[in-house]
DNA sequence: ATGTCC
C-alpha cells in the first residue's frame, strides 16, 4: 500500500496509492505531517466513490473525521453522482460569524471581564439548553426560513441577511424530511453555543494585510470583533444520524471499503430527502449563529451602555464550513455542474464569482486559529475553482486527538499560557482547556501561508484574541 | 461534533 507523493507545483502535492489519486494543499511540512495519518487513507478512499468529478482535495488543516477527513472537499456529477452524509459531517452547517463591535482594543480590555460575564449570562454554552425554548412549530419554520425567521422578529437586520452565506436561507428544505427527534433536539438547543471547538471570542485586528478590501469588509486596525464558531447543534446531528442509519444497509454501501463513506445515488428519493433535510439543518445553523449574534448585541448594549452604538455592530460575514451545494466549477478544462461536499472546508469564491453584497469584491473567508492564537480573514482568488473547487481551509486542524490532548497536556499550564498572553477566559468545563489548546492544533500561520501560497485565497486581515468563551 | 450511549 505504498503511497507515492509528487510535487505538482508549490504548495500542491498529488498523492497516489496505485489506484486512487488526491491533491493536498500545503507546505512540505504540512504534507509530511499529514502523511501516514488516517486522514490521508480517508482522502484516497473518497476517490473511489462513484460519479466523482475531478479529484478529492485535502486542505492544509486536514485531519481524521467520520469516513471523510475534516478539511476536505469532493465534487460529484450533479445528475449521475452521489451525496454522502459523511462528506458533510455530523455538525451540518458548522461555521463562523464575525461581527464588528464598534469598540477599540483599549476600551475592550477595560471592560473585558464584564463583557465576557454578560455574554456568558446571555448565551448558553457547553451542555446548557436554550433559556427561552421555542415551539416545535417555530423550529420547523426556522428550518425552512433560516435567518429570515429572525429578521421578521427583529433579531436580524437586512444587512445581516446580505452578509450571510446563501443569505442565511436555503430554498427547498421540506419540513417532513426532518424527524420529530431532530425537531425535539432543535427545540432544546436553539441559540446555544455547544462545546468542543465551538467558541465565542473577542478579537482585535492586529494586522491589516489588504487595506482596500479590509475597508470593504469593515475591518479596521485595532478595532474589536466578535467571532462565533458553532453549528446546527442536536438538530443537525440528528439529521445526519437519521440518514446515515437509513442508508447503512443499501447494497452498494455494504460493499464499501469503509461503511462510513455510505452514500445515496442522486437519482434516488433518499438523496432528495437527505439534501432537503441537510438544507433545513443548514438554515437552522445559520439562524443559530444569528440568534447568538442577537444575544451578544444585547449583552454589549447592557455592559457598554451609551458607549455601544448598535449601528456599528455590523456583521462582517456569517459563513458555513460543513455543507454540500450544487455549483458550477472549472474541472478538467470545462465548466461543470457538480454537488460539492465541503467538510471542515470553507467556500472561497473569487470576486468575479461572488454575488450579492460582496459581488466583485469576493466574500470574506473566515479562518479561526486555535484558542489563544490568531485568526485570519481572506478572500478567494481567481482560478481557485480549478485547484480546490474554490474552497479554502476552515481552521488550524488538529494534530492531537481529544483523548491524546487530555493525556499529554495539563489544563493548569494551558491556563497560565493564555494568562501570559493577556487573554481573558470563561469556560463551562475544563476539558476544553487541553482539547482546544494551541498544542492540540497545527500552527495557524503555516496553514495561512499554505492557502495563500497555494493560490486559493489572499490575506485581508489578521485578528488576535482578547477574550474567549468556551463550552 | 453529540441531551458527550438507546
Query: Quaternary state, please?
Result: single chain
Terminal residue distance: 41 Å
Q: Determine the strand fraction and express it as a percent band.
A: 25-35%
Q: Kindly state the mean pLDDT as a whole number?
A: 96
**CATH topology grouping:** tRNA-splicing ligase RtcB
Q: What integer value in Å does the Rg equal? A: 21 Å
CATH class: Alpha Beta
| Number of domain units | 1
Can you identify the CATH superfamily? tRNA-splicing ligase RtcB
* Helical segment count: 16
Query: What is the approximate shape?
Result: globular
Specify the biggest β-sheet: 8 strands, mixed
Q: So, CATH architecture?
A: Alpha-Beta Complex
Work out the number of β strands: 19
The level of helicity is 25-40%
Cofactor: Mn(2+)
Binding site for Mn(2+) 2: 229, 321
Function: Essential for tRNA splicing and maturation. Acts by directly joining spliced tRNA halves to mature-sized tRNAs. Joins RNA with 2',3'-cyclic-phosphate or 3'-phosphate ends to RNA with 5'-hydroxy ends.
GO biological process, one term: RNA processing
Annotation keywords:
DNA-binding, alpha+beta, globular, 8-stranded mixed beta sheet, 34% helix, 16 helices, 19 strands, 471 residues, tRNA-splicing ligase RtcB
Amino acid at each position: 500500500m505504498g503511497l507515492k507523493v509528487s510535487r505538482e507545483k508549490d504548495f500542491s502535492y498529488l498523492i497516489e496509492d496505485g489506484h486512487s489519486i488526491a491533491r493536498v494543499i500545503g507546505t512540505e511540512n504540512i504534507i509530511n505531517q499529514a502523511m501516514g495519518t488516517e486522514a490521508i487513507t480517508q482522502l484516497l478512499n473518497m476517490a473511489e466513490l462513484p460519479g466523482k468529478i475531478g479529484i478529492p482535495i485535502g486542505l492544509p488543516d486536514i485531519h481524521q473525521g467520520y469516513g471523510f477527513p475534516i478539511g476536505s472537499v469532493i465534487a460529484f456529477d450533479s445528475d449521475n453522482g452521489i451525496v454522502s452524509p459523511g462528506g458533510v459531517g455530523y455538525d451540518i452547517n458548522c461555521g463562523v460569524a464575525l461581527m464588528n463591535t464598534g469598540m477599540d482594543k483599549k476600551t475592550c480590555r477595560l471592560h473585558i471581564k464584564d463583557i465576557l460575564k454578560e455574554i456568558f449570562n446571555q448565551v448558553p454554552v457547553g451542555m446548557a439548553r436554550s433559556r427561552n425554548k421555542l415551539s416545535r412549530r417555530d423550529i420547523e419554520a426556522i428550518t425552512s426560513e433560516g435567518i429570515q425567521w429572525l429578521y421578521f422578529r427583529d433579531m436580524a437586520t437586512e444587512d445581516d441577511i446580505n452578509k450571510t452565506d446563501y443569505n442565511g436561507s436555503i430554498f427547498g428544505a421540506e419540513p417532513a424530511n426532518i424527524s420529530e427527534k431532530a425537531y425535539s433536539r432543535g427545540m432544546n438547543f436553539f441559540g446555544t453555543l455547544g462545546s468542543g471547538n465551538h467558541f465565542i471570542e473577542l478579537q482585535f485586528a492586529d494586522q491589516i494585510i489588504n487595506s482596500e478590501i479590509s475597508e470593504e469588509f469593515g475591518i479596521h486596525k485595532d478595532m474589536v470583533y466578535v467571532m462565533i464558531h458553532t453549528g446546527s447543534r442536536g438538530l443537525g446531528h440528528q439529521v445526519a444520524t437519521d440518514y446515515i442509519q437509513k442508508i447503512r444497509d443499501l447494497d452498494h454501501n455494504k460493499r464499501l471499503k469503509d461503511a462510513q463513506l455510505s452514500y445515496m445515488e442522486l437519482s434516488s428519493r433518499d438523496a432528495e430527502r437527505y439534501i432537503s433535510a441537510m438544507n433545513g439543518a443548514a438554515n437552522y445553523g445559520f439562524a443559530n449563529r444569528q440568534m447568538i449574534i442577537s444575544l451578544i448585541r444585547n449583552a454589549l448594549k447592557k455592559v457598554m451602555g451609551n458607549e455601544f452604538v448598535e449601528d456599528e455592530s455590523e456583521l462582517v460575514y456569517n459563513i458555513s464550513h460543513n455543507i454540500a451545494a450544487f455549483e458550477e466549477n472549472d474541472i478538467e478544462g470545462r465548466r461543470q455542474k457538480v454537488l460539492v461536499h465541503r467538510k471542515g472546508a470553507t467556500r472561497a469564491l473569487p470576486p468575479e464569482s461572488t454575488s450579492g453584497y460582496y459581488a466583485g469584491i469576493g466574500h470574506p473567508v473566515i479562518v479561526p486559529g486555535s484558542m489563544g492564537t490568531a485568526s485570519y480573514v481572506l478572500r478567494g482568488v481567481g482560478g481557485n475553482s480549478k485547484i480546490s473547487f474554490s474552497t479554502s481551509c476552515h481552521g488550524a486542524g488538529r494534530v492531537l486527538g481529544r483523548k491524546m490532548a487530555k493525556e499529554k497536556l495539563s489544563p493548569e499550564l494551558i491556563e497560565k499560557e493564555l494568562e501570559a498572553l493577556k487573554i481573558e477566559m470563561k469556560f463551562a468545563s475544563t476539558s476544553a482547556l487541553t482539547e482546544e489548546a494551541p498544542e492540540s492544533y497545527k500552527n495557524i500561520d503555516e496553514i495561512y501561508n499554505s492557502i495563500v501560497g497555494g493560490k486559493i485565497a489572499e490575506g485581508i486581515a489578521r485578528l488576535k484574541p482578547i477574550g474567549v468563551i468556551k463550552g
